[in-house]
Each structure stands twice: as structure tokens, then as C-alpha cells.
Amino acid sequence: MHKPGKIRAPKGKLGVLLPGMGAVSTTFMAGVELVRSGKATPVGSLTQMGTIRLGKRTDNQSPLIRDFVALAKLDDLVFGGWDPFPENAYAAAAKAGVLEPHHLKAVKPFLSKIRPMTAAFDREYVKLLDGKHVKKGKTKYDLALQIKADIANFRKKHNLARLIVLWCGSTEIYLTPEKVHSTPERFVEAMKSNHPGIAPSMLYAWAAVTSGVPFGNGAPNLTVDIPAIQQLALENGVPIAGKDFKTGQTLMKTILAPGLKARMLGLNGWFSTNILGNRDGEVLEDPGSFKTKEESKLGALEYILQPHLYPKLYGTIHHKVRINYYPPRGDNKEGWDNIDIFGWLGYPMQIKVDFLCRDSILAAPIVLDLVLFLDLAHRAGMRGIQEWLSFYFKSPMCAPELYPEHDLFIQLMKLKNTLRWMMGKDLITHLGQEYYD
Ligand SMILES: NC(=O)c1ccc[n+]([C@@H]2O[C@H](COP(=O)([O-])OP(=O)(O)OC[C@H]3O[C@@H](n4cnc5c(N)ncnc54)[C@H](O)[C@@H]3O)[C@@H](O)[C@H]2O)c1
Predict the structure, then answer these.
(1) Whose alpha carbon is nearest atom 44 of ligand 1?
(2) I want to staple 217 with a disulfide (CB 3.0 to 4.6 A). Which of 175, 242, 401, 414 is the partner?
């Protein structure tokens, strides 16, 4: 295992560029502004509120994570983005309907100044949107070069020391890796010939990575889950992470399933259904976009329960996920789970979960943490897939020879141990025999 590098200090401003300025992006930006002006608490953010234990339990040493590792300060974040609709971030936030009027009013001057740049957008990949605020170019390669120019201009205009690009755009149609994604050269050729395997989100990823800018993927799109971009990330020394923010129902799944498995309780089925009425829900009405989301949501249980190791407990699980667009609910989603479990001697039991959550309120702190941790990783010289950030994703990226880790508690331990490793501190194994010697 290689040694952690020296971490560069977070000097200067950090640009945060978000492709997609909808509900999640605007709730995130508004929240950061409210927190840094002392009007709100960053609930849900591990980087802002979490602590990390160092040494033995008897050492009583649990600093805040942000005091332990040098993270960019919220005051140093500068926001921008792209969207196929021209509304500024205030208008987009008002339309998204996540924030209460008193919060919206408090951030109106700040959000109104954030105007999206024209998007690299193609209706083929998000069928139910029809934005006109889009880039023009003969080929996908031309569009990607325009995104690179946008990144360079944004850096110059705001005198930024560093940048992060994090996809908060709509869920694109389902794509699978193919030959055009296999190497950087083939990828460029495919952009130049307008190959259908190259989705708009990939153009942002290519532009960011080849500009030396870390890239994260908050949606279930293929985007950076392809060898071409992963190789470019290694060559350009930039971290990448994805995919699909772990909020609402999957968050619950990855909290509950590890517990059932820990106690060797069996599972016959897990039926999950959702009603939501935001633009994300509208986009997911399209079967192509829904398929992308469904694949991302279905993976978690299989990996956590490991039916090949426990065929008698998890060998025949019926796992169903449904998403229904229901406008009256707006961003305030309702997710129901019916879980059919069995115990001692095979006796059946049921668990019902009804989570009345707020999608963007759960996603915003994830965006903040990913921005700060991707920047930290970059300053520490870490490049390519950042598996330690699996904690934040429904469908975590990992090396091709591994299976992804979905258990929230293992993910958290991995994240904190990575921070300890980066800072040259002892890892915590939870063995604890030394207390009884
Ligand atoms: N909120 C959550 O809990 C959550 C959880 C996991 C994943 N996500 C994903 O995060 C993404 C954002 O969610 P949201 O609720 O903000 O959705 P949203 O519909 O409010 O915002 C998405 C924005 O992306 C824009 N967009 C679409 N294609 C684009 C392109 N090519 N370039 C630039 N912008 C583009 C749309 O115009 C829209 O404004 C979605 O893909 C969603 O599936 C959200």
C-alpha cells in the first residue's frame, strides 16, 4: 500500500461548478450561504458536524473532522453551474419549492447573482425536458471544448485556486459501457463522430478531468463509470467519485439491511415504493431515465446480504422498487417499504417503513461533503476512484476486481480510517483487547 502524500494547504478560493442547477444544487448553495452567514446549522454534514476518534477510548480525543483535516472553509466556496433553463439560482430555487419563504428571502440577493452557463444538453438523453439555454456545436467534441473553456473562464474570473465539478443534473437514459468508452483515444473519436454512447454528462466529466479538476457524479448515469475517464483521471492526477447520492429510501435500506444480516434474520422480500412530485420525479417518468435509477437502487440489497454466502436466508429475495410521479408532493417525497423477514424456525414477520422525507434536504449536505472531500483528496495527491467516499452513494464506484461496499457502517468506518491514514494516525480496528490486559 502506498503512503499518504503531504496534503497541500487549502489556500485561496475553491470554485464549485454544478452541471444542473435544480432542486439539489440550489438547496445546497442556499444552505451554505445561510450557514456561513450564521443563520443556519449544517445538519446532515459530516464535514461540518462530525467528529473523529483518535487513539484509545481512554484518550478522550475526538476532534471535529474539520479541525482534524484541513478542509476548504465555507467562506472560500464560489458557486457556478450549467443548466438548459436560463433562470438564475433564485428563480430555480423558488420553482423547486424546497425552501420556506423566509429562507428564500434571506438568500435572494446571493442566489440571484448565480446564473447558469449554457448547457451541453441533448433531449435524447433526458426525454422529458426541453431546455433552450444550450450550447451549439457540430460535434459532441466541440461542446466538450466549450465546457473546458467555461471552466477556465470561471477560474480566471473568480481568481480561484482550485475547482470541483459535481453532476447534479437530471438522470439520463440507461447506458452500458461499450468499446467507445474503453480508452481516452476511442472516447475522443466517439465525441468527434457524435456517437450515441456519449451522453452529455460524460462531456462535463471529460472536460473537468482533462482540465485537472476533480469530478463527482450525484446521479445514477454511467458518466465516470467508464475506463476512458478513469484512465484520464489517473493521468491527470484527479480524484473522481460516484454515483447517485444516497438519500431517502436507499439510505434506510443500507441502515436496516446490515442490521438484519448482522442478526442472521432471513428476508423473503422488500417492496419499495415512492411518490414524489419534483422535476427529478417528472424526468423519472421516462422509462429510459427510470431504468437508470432502478438499476442503481436495486444493487444495494444484493451486495449487503450476499445471498451466495447465505442461500438459506437470502437466496430467494423479491426486491421491487417503484417510483411514481405525483405532483402535489413536490420535493417532499414519501417512501414506503414493506419488508418480509423471517426468524427462528422460519417464522415470518414484517417491518413497515414510511419515510416522509425531503429529497433535496437530504442531498444538500452530501453535496457539501463531497465537494470538500474531493478537494481534500486532490490536495493529498489521491487520484482516480475514491472508494472511501462510498458512504455518500447509492451505487458506489470501486476497482473493477472488487464488489462495491454498500453497508453504511462499513462505509463510515472506511471513510474515517482513510482520514486517519491520510493524517498518519493509527487506524481504529475496534478490537479493544488492550483495555483488559
Ligand atoms: N434529491 C435527492 O435525494 C437525490 C438523490 C440521489 C440522486 N439525485 C439525483 O440528483 C440529480 C438532481 O436532482 P434534483 O432533484 O436537483 O433534480 P432537478 O430536476 O431539480 O434538477 C436537475 C437539473 O439538471 C438540469 N439538466 C438536465 N440535463 C442537463 C445537462 N445536460 N446539463 C446541465 N444541466 C442539466 C435540469 O434542467 C434541471 O434543472 C438527479 O439526477 C437526481 O436523480 C437526487
Answers:
(1) 245
(2) 242
- Tell which CATH classification among 3.40.190.10, 3.40.50.720, 3.30.70.20, 3.40.640.10 matches the domain 13-245+360-422: 3.40.50.720
- In the chain, domain spans: 13-245+360-422, 248-356
pLDDT at 200 over 90: yes
Q: What is the mean pLDDT of residues 358-382?
A: 97
**pLDDT, tens digit, for every residue of 282-314?**
887 888 778 877 776 778 888 999 999 999 999
The residue-averaged pLDDT of 314-330 equals 90
Q: Which residues of 125-137 are buried (b: 16+ CB within 10 A; e: fewer)?
A: bbbebebebbbee
* Choice from 170, 217, 285, 367 to test ligand 1 binding pocket (greatest atom count within 8 A of CB): 170
Cα separation, 371 vs 166, in Å, equals 8
Q: Which residues, at least 6 apart from 437, have a Cβ–Cβ distance to it below 8 Å?
A: none
**What's domain 248-356's architecture?**
2-Layer Sandwich (3.30)
Cβ neighbours of residue 108 under 8 Å, at least 6 residues apart? 90
Task: Tell how far the Cα of 20 is from the centroid of ligand 1, in angstroms.
Answer: 6
